């Protein structure tokens, strides 16, 4: 789907710029027509006949536009030249405005491409560890995961974060990122709850890390799923598991906020 969107965006911008350059060429043709009118002493009533004689397609288009612009007014040579220059000025001003607009749109699109694709690739390569031999690269799963995340590949990012977690079991950051994707990007709090329960049941964590995940679990139950009862159970679990610590104090404060202490 993203490829289709990019193709459409590139096609639209390409058409816009092609039209802009054609307008610029038409402005030049109109100014050249003004010089021709002056040199050949062409009044407005002579323009239809000169149109038949012209062999230049750009000049022909400029003559047609000038005839339309004059609205059947009869003008002498000087007035016809002035009208041609005025028409060229009008088109040039309009073309300049659209050119500025297209420049901003193109720059914005290029910026999006850079942030979404180029920057993650640069970061991915920059964070690889290069050994002295210059032949072996250490794969950085966290960098790969963040690259996929920046591209909107949430499933690929979560898989890469799981690989990073397997490589560094004591590091909670990969799991924090997975839970964040599930909660904020996929809007799937149930999966985030399942992930936290999975890692609390199957992995061993230091006190601070275990407490962190329990508090995130309570937040999900209470804030995302509207299950205050389950959140209260989690806070009571913190009180039992970490007595006389700042974690139990924070749990007691949360229960107080809920009017349960």
The span between the termini is 52 Å
Structural class: mainly alpha
Q: What are the low-pLDDT stretches, counting only 5+ consecutive residues below 50?
A: 128-138
> Biggest β-sheet: count, sense, barrel?
2 strands, antiparallel
Helix-residue proportion: over 70%
Largest sheet, spatial ordering of strands: 1-2
General form: rod-shaped
Q: What is Rg? A: 34 Å
Mean pLDDT: 86
Write the H/E string, N to C: HHHHEEHHHHHHH
Tell me the total number of β-strands.
2
With helices defined by DSSP (H or I, 4 residues minimum), what is the helix count? 11
Strand content: under 5%
Label this structure with key terms.
261 residues; mainly alpha; two-stranded antiparallel sheet; 11 helices; 79% helix; 2% strand
What would your notes on this structure say?
The chain is rod-shaped and about 100 Å long. A two-stranded antiparallel sheet has the order 1-2. It contains 11 helices and 2 strands; from the N terminus they run H-H-H-H-E-E-H-H-H-H-H-H-H. 79% of the residues lie in helices and 2% in strands. It is an all-alpha fold and 261 residues long. Among the domains are: 2-111, no CATH class; 188-257, no CATH class. Helix 1 crosses helix 3.
């Amino acid at each position: 789907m993203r490829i289709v969107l990019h193709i459409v965006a590139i096609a639209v911008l390409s058409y816009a710029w092609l039209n802009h350059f054609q307008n610029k060429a038409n402005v030049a043709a109109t100014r050249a027509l003004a010089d021709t009118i002056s040199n050949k002493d062409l009044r407005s009533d002579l323009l239809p006949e000169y149109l038949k004689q012209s062999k230049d397609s750009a000049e022909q288009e400029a003559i047609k536009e000038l005839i339309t612009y004059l609205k059947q007014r009869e003008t002498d040579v000087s007035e016809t030249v002035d009208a041609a220059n005025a028409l060229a000025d009008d088109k040039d001003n309009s073309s300049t405005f659209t050119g500025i607009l297209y420049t901003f749109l193109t720059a914005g699109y290029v910026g999006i491409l850079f942030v979404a694709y180029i920057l993650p690739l640069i970061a991915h390569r920059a964070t690889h560890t290069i050994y002295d031999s210059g032949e072996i690269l250490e794969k950085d799963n966290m960098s790969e995961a963040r690259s996929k995340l920046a591209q909107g590949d949430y499933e690929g990012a979560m898989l890469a974060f799981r690989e990073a977690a397997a490589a560094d079991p004591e590091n909670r950051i990969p799991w924090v990122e997975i839970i964040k994707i599930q909660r904020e990007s996929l809007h799937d709090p149930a999966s985030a709850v399942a992930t936290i329960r999975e890692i609390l049941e199957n992995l061993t964590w230091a006190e601070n890390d275990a407490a962190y995940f329990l508090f995130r679990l309570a937040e999900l139950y209470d804030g995302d799923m509207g299950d205050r009862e389950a959140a209260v159970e989690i806070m009571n679990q913190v009180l039992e598991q970490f007595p006389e610590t700042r974690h139990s104090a924070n749990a007691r404060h949360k229960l107080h906020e809920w009017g349960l202490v």
